[in-house]
Amino acid sequence: MKIVIVGAGISGISTYLHLLKHLPNPSAHTLVIYESHKPRSSSPSAQPPADSATFDSLSQSTQLVGGGLGISPNGMRILLTLDKALHDAVAAQGFCVENFIFKGANGWTLGTQKTGDGKVKAIDDKEEFCIASSRHGLWETMFKHAIEVGGSGAIKYRRVVSIVREANEGAGIVVKFEDGGEEMVDLVIGADGVKSVCRTALFGTEEKYAPKYIGQSGVGGFLSLPMSSIVASKAMTFTFGPNGFFGYSSSGPTPPNLMWWSTFETSSVPSIKDMDAAVIKKALVERHKNWKDPILHDIIKNADVESVYPTWTVPELPHWGERGIVLVGDSCHAMDPTTGQGASQGLEDSKTLALLIAECLKRAETEHRGIETEKDAVDLAIKLYHEIRSPRVAEIVERGKKLAGKKANVGPVMEYVTYFFLWLMMAVPSIGKFLLGDVLRSLNTWSAEEEVHKVLQKLEDSS
Ligand SMILES: Cc1cc2nc3c(=O)[nH]c(=O)nc-3n(C[C@H](O)[C@H](O)[C@H](O)COP(=O)(O)OP(=O)(O)OC[C@H]3O[C@@H](n4cnc5c(N)ncnc54)[C@H](O)[C@@H]3O)c2cc1C
């Protein structure tokens, strides 16, 4: 089979590695990733490349967005089961966050939450924590691993412009490139992010399937500042205020390693003039001038704004693929960053899809229960993949919607209502569970292997 993955972000690279690991006879298949953007420089503080000069291009690739992110324990477990060396390398270049500290702009500490999954995992299982990392650090570690495992040809730099199914039943899928080239393939895996051309190939350009700007944008960057208190508390700090949100944490052992970000409300996608660094810095100072945390002020005083990003989400789609085209990660479910789950859900997608393709191909080899060809196997895998993954993602998206409003502009009454709500959820965990469900348990007890086993068993039982 010829398999093309479009996009070498976190989801694309992870899908590549999982397929190499799980396909019954990987050398019998051709597997390649096509990526449109050359990576930015190795330093997180380096200027983004020239083609990030428009918001449209920023939205096409989170690699260009840069900044930092937290990989939650469920995502780290996917990396652990994929390859321990990769997991350890991701953890080593990042910063192990054992606590989330929630604050109010007025200086109150509203609560602390442990990030570790020890409480809900078997006791002999080593506890996983949230790993804070520059996006580039995570991506580069995964990229190097993919090259080590798959060779230098694993990732090719070519922009895919469209994907077309051949008209006659059973024919292949044509991937068309910006350079005018074309390739006929059997399976296209769209890991091409929020502005996905693979999603367009499946759903066309209808507005109801297009990404939506959520009315919030963010700025962020990295600094070298003394941060013994941040490191000692092993914490990522989130501060909520009446006119936005501010977060900071260490991003790992190598300076500049104080990562920070600030989210603010803008009813429309910011215009290109808003990308002027001096304008952004002025707005940042203005926005947070009355906030009480001295670390926040130290950061803002020293900050150079490196990335600006409008936030997009992808609406719930009726399916995530059919007839040889399938989506993973942000291309099918870009979610509000408040969830802290975008990357981890991409990792879970990739493992689930690879396990299903592998299992269905094994059944095709023995022509088991009507699965006679590789095409049958792929179609079934795509269908089961959506069956497993969409309810999980929908639950996380819904929870994110409840929390996202807490970053919007509010008056003084709502500001204190927000503080009270956040305090209450952490001070009385049963109320948090009542409002949001048992988040820790539902995030960290999910297992791709178990879910795949269950759907295949159900299939056996029904036939
Ligand atoms: C501000 C912000 C903060 C976030 N914080 C967190 C967090 O703390 N924790 C978390 O888990 N998640 C977080 N996320 C979400 C997370 O970053 C994304 O969910 C994740 O990066 C998605 O990975 P992906 O590989 O699916 O997509 P992307 O990272 O967007 O990768 C898509 C890739 O496809 C390439 N591509 C696009 N179009 C084409 C084409 N036509 N041809 C070839 N290649 C193409 C792109 O260049 C890119 O490399 C955050 C997101 C944002 C915006």
Automatic annotation (TrEMBL):
Family to which the UniProt record says this protein belongs: Belongs to the paxM FAD-dependent monooxygenase family.
Biological source species: Clohesyomyces aquaticus
Name listed for the protein in its UniProt record: FAD-binding domain-containing protein
GO MF term (any one): FAD binding
The keyword Oxidoreductase is annotated on this UniProt entry: yes
PANTHER family: MONOOXYGENASE, PUTATIVE (AFU_ORTHOLOGUE AFUA_6G14510)-RELATED
FAD-binding domain: residues covered: 140-366
SUPFAM superfamilies: FAD/NAD(P)-binding domain
Keywords attached to this entry: FAD, Flavoprotein, Monooxygenase, Oxidoreductase
Superkingdom of source: Eukaryota
Compositional bias annotation for Low complexity: 41-53
InterPro entries: FAD-bd, FAD-dep_Monooxygenase_BioMet, FAD/NAD-bd_sf
Region (Disordered): 36-55
Lineage: Eukaryota, Fungi, Dikarya, Ascomycota, Pezizomycotina
Keyword Oxidoreductase in annotation: yes
